Amino acid sequence: MDTPSRPAFDLPRYLSALPLFHDVAPPELSRLAGGCTLRRFSRGQTVFRVGDPCEEFHVTVMGQVKLFALSSNGQEKVIEIIGPGGTFAEALMFTGRPYIVTAQALTDALVLSVAKAAVMSEIENDPRFCLRMLAGISRRLHGLVRDVEDYTLCSGAQRIIGYLLRDVGEAAEKHGGVTVSLPVSKATIASRLSLTPEYFSRVLHELEEEGLIEIDRREIRISDPKKLAQYQLQ
Hints:
With 234 residues, the chain is α+β, with helices and mostly antiparallel strands.
């Protein structure tokens, strides 16, 4: 069972750091905080299931949460992995429909839930609040569109390389090489990229044989990110 708890930190300040609420004024943030609940989940515990009513959206404060769907034969497809500061279900909350995916804690996690009633109250008080939320939801939608483009236009190897290089830009420029820590299992990442675990592992080992990466469990050392990025174009 998840364990509700009262926020022990400055919740309005935390909310202000989220992209959805960057431009929200302190009084609005304080009111929103009153509609928030913190829950602790153990690894493997369900945050919500397909078909549950969606009356709030969520923020991963600590840990990792995966959103996934099951096919008719029980095969799992990871839709998204939500790390610290990531939000989920904010768009669905406005539709009045139940959850269309299941959310599960990949690690021990702390999840902040923001009640729909609190959000709707702020929208009624200030329509500009709605525009701010729409901007945040639009950024999320653009990210999902990019994912679809990758699945359609990029090979499996290109998707894997793109995943490894997604956050290394500035660090690579300053230090040359960079180490990437896989936040979850390789099988989970493979599902997120619409690949089989076997293919994902095979590509990693091929890249290691080419001297482009070094693998140490979940630590992947990229000695020359620019060279690795060029490899996907071959």
